[in-house]
Write a structure and sequence with these properties.
By secondary structure, this protein is an alpha+beta fold. Helix content is 31%, strand content 20%. It has one domain. α1 runs parallel beside α4 and α3 packs antiparallel against α4. The longest helix is centred in the middle third of the chain and has 21 residues.
Length: 212
């Protein structure tokens, strides 16, 4: 039951866009360092090289709202329309949108999403009382594999932590051109003292398979 509630929470907010424009990007940050558990990139998406240059993109982003309805609407859609390099958007079906941008605009958006997402994820252990539960979060360059060291399991479980990671990682992958059915995202919750794996969230098994 707890796992089902976690998935529902995640799916309900998957289409939330990151705030701010490309011009307000945070200072560059990465989720890996010399002590990283992902020396070779960890468990990454197939044939992915973390594109960042305009030449790596075709200017087409397909984003699916898993809970149904348009992925973006209202002020969220207005934010998309105001992005540098935005050209157009159209609904391909009732819950899938095609966004067209210039390759340069898409590259700028990806750069912003990667930097902002890394910065926010690294702050999660320090947010409010999270320090009582999370020791650290490590993630690979593709935002596809996360290791969360747990000090103490909160009463509400890992749902909110999963939610935060999925929101940001999903945005990065989609704007890099990854299709919904190809999104790879593994979140491992590990006991900081024993190294025991406490819980694993798998986007393919817990989200993609459930959406079919």
């Amino acid at each position: 039951m707890k796992k089902l509630l976690t998935i529902i929470l995640v799916l309900s907010l998957l289409a939330i866009p990151l705030a701010c424009s490309n011009n307000d990007a945070a200072e560059e940050s990465t989720g890996t360092d010399s002590g990283s558990r992902f020396p070779t990139g960890g468990e990454q998406r197939p044939e992915t090289t973390s594109p960042t240059d305009a030449g790596d993109f075709d200017g087409e982003i397909v984003i699916r709202s898993i809970m149904g309805g348009p992925p973006y609407s209202g002020s969220d859609l207005e934010e998309i329309e105001q992005l540098d390099g935005f050209i157009s958007h159209e609904m391909l079906d009732e819950d899938t949108m095609l966004i067209k941008m210039t390759p340069e605009g898409q590259a700028a958006r990806v750069k912003y999403l990667r930097e902002e997402s890394a910065a926010v994820i690294e702050m999660i252990p320090e947010y409010e009382d999270n320090a009582n539960y999370i020791k650290s979060i490590e993630f690979d360059d593709n935002f596809s594999h996360f290791i969360v060291e747990i000090i103490e399991t909160p009463e509400h479980g890992y749902g909110w932590f999963t939610l935060g990671l999925v929101i940001y990682a999903y945005q990065v992958q989609v704007f890099e051109g990854v299709q919904f059915e190809d999104v790879v995202m593994i979140i491992e919750y590990i006991d900081s003292q024993t190294g025991e794996v406490l819980e694993v969230f798998d986007f393919q098994k817990d989200v993609v398979s459930s959406a079919d």
